[in-house]
Amino acid sequence: MTIRTDIPDRDHPRAVLDAEGVRDAYRRWAGVYDLVFGGVSAHGRRRAVEEVNRLPGTRVLEVGVGTGLALPRYRPEKRVVGVDLSREMLQKAAGRVREERLSHVVGLCEMDAERMAFADDSFDIAVAMFTASVVPNAKVLFAEMSRVVRPGGHLLFVNHFAAESGLRWWAERSMAPLARLLGWHPDFALSDLLDPAAVRVEAMEPCQPAGLFTLLRVRNQAATAPLAVAA
User: Fold this and answer.
1) Which pTM does this prediction carry?
2) Are 124 and 57 in contact (CB under 8 A)?
3) Alpha-carbon distance 99 to 96, whole Å?
4) Residue 91 burial (CB < 10 Å; 0-12/13-18/19+)?
5) SS3 of 110, please?
6) Are 145 and 124 spatial neighbours (Cβ–Cβ below 8 Å)?
7) What three-state secondary structure class fits 79?
8) What tens digit of pLDDT does each residue of 138-157 get?
């Protein structure tokens, strides 16, 4: 599989996502999310949490925690805070924490991942699973995750990245105008998240099914100034 790292001139329509659009989409998805996406995303979630568990540091931020599918997999010594924009998804996650007595989960917060309320250097690790292509501006997400993670800590992402050719490329382009209805960008590229020339990626690993998703690990270099969001 070839991951597309740069799409400088999109020649196809792409719907704009905003915070309210994301809320609306995941209000619809909340009741069926685990059933529809739980299986296809299971391998990527498992690999991401395995990486978190082996990395040094106990302070973990899960960005876009959703219904909490990954929460039971963290090691007991990790202290996990989850954030999500969708109140309905967070309610599902809170129920999971109670039912499974997940004492390592120390907080669930309704919060915009592009404007997090945490202080600089609050976490050792931040992980975003299937979230980067959901937020309105993924580079702002990357900057915020860099800000709240200490220098030398780690940023991890599991996400779908756009293909360069073939049937999947055609499908992604065709679905791009439906981004607001779906709640994510089907044609999401790595360059939508970070500048490959400026950010040192430590590891990229294809994840099942069929390499549809990629696990990405970045060492946090320093606090990144928040990016301006166009009005």
Assistant:
1) 0.76
2) yes
3) 5
4) middle
5) strand
6) no
7) strand
8) 999 999 999 999 999 999 99
